[in-house]
Amino acid sequence: MIDNKNIQQAWDAFQQYGVASTPISPPVLASWQRSLQHGIDVERNATSLLKEGELHRLKLQHSPFLYASRLAIWEGQERLNDTHSMIILADPQGVILETAGDPRAIDAGQDIRLQNGGRWDEASIGTNAIGTAIMLNAPVQIHAVEHFCNEVKKWTCAAAPVTDPRDQRLLGVVDISGPADTFYPQSLAHAIAIARQVEALLAHEMEVEHEGVLHYYLVKRFSGLNDVSIALSRSGKVLYATSRALQELRRRCPRLLDSQNGKLDVGQEGVEVTPTDFVEFIEGVIPGVRCEPVVDQKLLGYILILPNTYRAAHPLRSNAPQRFTGFDDIIGESRIMRDTCATAQKMAQSGAPILIEGETGVGKELFARAVHGESQRAGAFVPINCGAMPRELIASELFGHEKGAFTGADRSATGKIEMANGGTLCLDEIGELPLDMQPYLLRVLEDGIVYRIGSQQEQHVNISMVSMTNRHLANEVEKGGFRQDLFYRIATLHLRVPPLRERGDDVLLIAEALCRALAVQRGCAPMSLSSEAQDCLRHYHWPGNVRELRNVLEMSMLMASGPRIESHDLPEDIRTGQKVLSCIDGASRAPHSDLKTAEERLIQEAIERQGGNLTQAAKQLGIARSTLYSRLAKAAQR
Questions:
Q1: Residue 323: its pLDDT value, please?
Q2: 558: how many CB neighbours lie within 10 A of its CB?
Q3: Strands, E, within 59-192: which ranges?
Q4: How far apart are CA 610 and CA 604, in angstroms?
Q5: CB within 10 Å: which end of the chain, N or C, has fewer?
Q6: Is 179 exposed, middle or buried (0-12, 13-18, 19+ CB in 10 A)?
Q7: Distance CA 233, CA 262 (A)
């Protein structure tokens, strides 16, 4: 609080070093008072400058802010090129990170170190737009004599803070500066507009991140994750959780969740926590919890999985155990499914490494668990999703680490490979494993020895290896995206899990079992399917396989008004078959599956079903007849 004595001191200073006839606003007066308290000399002719290495570190630390502001910098370069002004981006401490605009202004700014690396907080250079905007957390314009230091009075500056839409913390400041004689009233409005533009872009990126986390969460739910799990944003905000999950979280750690902002309190208010620190903190305060990062080129968020929250990989039978342990738990009477199970049983008994291939949602992990059960190995089944971990976490997850091995490693951790000793290591999405990490995994598989990060102590392991992928790994090897030697090591045996569309009436057996399991989950009586609804399920091609089937049934049960699911309760695309070729039309968006083969197979099946009538086949497939002709011609050329 500014008392009368401090106000008088600031006013006297302004009268002495400013211009007596110039009116002074309360924010500027308060800033001058703070400058006096900091002991700033009005004759200070320049601020201090960071060393190049420290500036580089700050740019990396604030790269999301700089990336979101790149358009503003570009526009600033264009708009301010002939105005004797420049646009400045500063961090929350007032350090200048980037400048752009009129080269004359940029050159002149170096006289007072209004340049990259310059410190422009009030404690360094007194009243100025950057430092004062940070103190006020509000837009401000400081013109000429309103600056505290005499050399800076030659400038006019307008600054606006940029806040993170996730948690409202200050990300930085946008400033427009130029010589005092170039002052124009719109500078402040311009700075505010740029700040809001950056915040809007950040808000859009946040929405995309949240959608990615929720999509991943739903996928996990359909593949076995029950309702005691929580989807979190990158900053730890709860995006989705059932009441049961929140009750369990509060029971296990009452003070972790802030009920006012719906965010987990990780003890780092206003600071972006690294993924490693976040995961280690959460898993440290909640015994038995698993915090799984959600990654798609960058960190999107986390899935918090509380203890004992996994059901069977697909809850196809309501009385099935928590974990699938044998092939008897796999539902399917089709010839292709019986042959696949028989082949998998023989592979399991061999003990050789198995590569399980199949489209998303076919139940690859179900087979992996059945293989482990059939092998009768005494150790645990240890799964790890190579595509769901940030690069910086994969090595630690696989190999473990010793205390102090890297920043944030405040305790030793056992890796998944050690956990699987005597049992089965299951690597899901093996094709996503970074190339530079593949040689280390290969060495472990060949030598049976693992070294924790930061340790020279060898750990001998005896593991059975099962890998899973929805890619065509042989093609990835040819393209250089996967090591050939590792491919041959993990793919001694190949197992292809057929998609649901190839399994005939198995879809009805699975649907019946899913309805029973969903009824148990909801605490209601099981629902049956009308014959018309069964026909719709039978004739749909299920690009999302069992995972999509479960989703459809769960939604249809909510829509049904009686004890039976009718055809009109099903989604429109299921009733009309309009998504029959969704996996074909999305070929360019789904590079991980062998879609050319799938396209030819679907087209051929439709033509055969319609007795060679291409018009009717095109209608069934939901595409134009000309499109069908075009695709047949392309298939003939291959």
A1: 44
A2: 10
A3: 86-90, 96-101, 140-143, 155-163, 170-179
A4: 10
A5: N
A6: middle
A7: 11
Chain segment 556-584, per-residue pLDDT in tens: 887 888 889 998 888 887 887 644 443 33
- Walk across the sheet containing 381-385 and list its strands: 381-385, 424-428, 464-469, 354-357, 493-496
Helix (H, G, I), strand (E, B) or coil at 396: helix
Residue at token pair 């999405």: 429
Facing residues of 458 across strands? Answer: 451
CB 358 within 8 A of CB 496: yes
Nearest Cα to Cα of residue 469 among 419, 433, 421 = 433
**Residue of 193, 179, 85, 94 lying closest to 139 (CA atoms):** 193
Residue with tokens 């993990």: 490
Read off the pTM: 0.47
Confidence (pLDDT) at 314: 39
Q: In which residue are the tokens 């065509």 written?
A: 472
Q: Give the angle subtended at the CA of 201 by the CAs of 196 and 204, to the nearest 5°.
A: 125
Q: Which of 163, 169, 127 is nearest to 148 (CA)?
A: 127
Question: Which sign does the torsion angle of CA 208, 189, 138, 147 carry?
Answer: positive
Task: Identify the three-state secondary structure at position 159.
Answer: strand
Closest listed residue to residue 120, CA positions, set 85, 156, 90: 90
Q: Which of 233, 238, 260 is nearest to 249 (CA)?
A: 238
- Tokens for 118? 């310059």
Q: How far apart are CA 281 and CA 135, in angstroms?
A: 31
> What is the rounded distance in angstroms from the CA atom of residue 590 to the CA atom of residue 595?
8
For residues 86 and 179, what is the distance between their CA atoms, to the nearest angstrom? 10
Could you say which residues of the chain have pLDDT below 50?
1-4, 7, 20-21, 270, 309-324, 578-596, 637
Number of other CB atoms surrounding residue 605 within 10 Å: 17
Contact present, 506 and 337 (Cβ < 8 Å): yes
Q: For residue 375, how many other CB atoms are within 10 A of its CB?
A: 19
Q: What type of residue is 409?
A: A
DSSP letter (8 states) at residue 227 = S
How many Cα atoms within 13 Å fall on the side-chain side of residue 203? 10
How would you classify the pairing of strands 298-305 and 96-101?
Answer: unpaired
Per-residue pLDDT, 284: 80
Cα 520 from chain centre: 32
- Contact status, residue 153 vs residue 48, Cβ threshold 8 Å: no
DSSP class of residue 263 equals E
Rounded Cα distance between 469 and 14, Å, is 70
Task: Measure the CA–CA gap between 604 and 612, rounded to whole angstroms.
Answer: 9
Return the percent helix, strand and coil in the chain, to nearest 5: 50, 15, 35
Both structure tokens of 335: 């010839």
Using alpha carbons, list the distances in angstroms from residue 260 to 50, 239, 256, 265, 597.
39, 14, 12, 11, 52
